[in-house]
Amino acid sequence: MDALNALVDPTIGLIILALAVACVALVVAVVVLWRRTSGLEGRLAGLTRGAEGQSLEAILDAHLDKVYAISRDVDDLATRSARLEAANRRAFQRSGIVRFNPFEDTGGNQSFALALLDADGNGLVMSSLHSRSGTRIYAKGVAGGRTQTQLSTEEAEALRLALASEAGAGTSG
User: Fold this and answer.
1) Tens of pLDDT along 8-39?
2) What is the C-alpha separation between 112 and 63, in angstroms, rounded?
3) 81 & 103 share domain
């Protein structure tokens, strides 16, 4: 051990001085890094602050809440749309009308046969016969594009026009 002390004694002052310089350099480096980090934190806070002074995290949370709300609204709209589409199949979508003059003593084609059908060909054929003494209206049910009762020529033509028409587009003869 005495040999070690003899070796270190002449250089101990130099070692202490080197360690002191290293400690001062490290303290200076820590101060410089602390100031730079504080400056960066201030700049980052300024960049991530929202219009109302909120943090980036608060802004992202608010946007995420909006995304979830919109997702729920879209699901609700999809459900409502499915219900409307199902109801729409039962609405009158096809029509055909034929105007005619059944009596020689009246002028013009004031009588008509009108067919109104849904997407499945269900509905009715309605006829209006106009004469000088009055107007009579008749209706016949249609199921699957067919009736159980005999149709007049004009009623059959109105039904044919309705069956041939595309959904939502009426035709007239």
Assistant:
1) 777 888 888 999 999 999 999 999 999 999 88
2) 60
3) no
pLDDT tens column, 79-131: 999 999 988 888 999 999 999 988 776 667 889 999 999 989 999 999 999 88
Say if strands 94-100 and 170-172 run parallel, antiparallel, or are unpaired.
parallel
User: Do residues 124 and 140 make contact, with C-beta atoms less than 8 angstroms apart?
Assistant: yes
Residues 56 and 123 grouped into a single domain: no
Residue 26's domain spans which residues?
1-48
Report the domain count for the chain: 3
Contacts of 112 (CB under 8 A, 6+ apart): 97, 98, 99, 100, 127, 128, 154, 158
The CA distance from 158 to 165, in Å, is 11
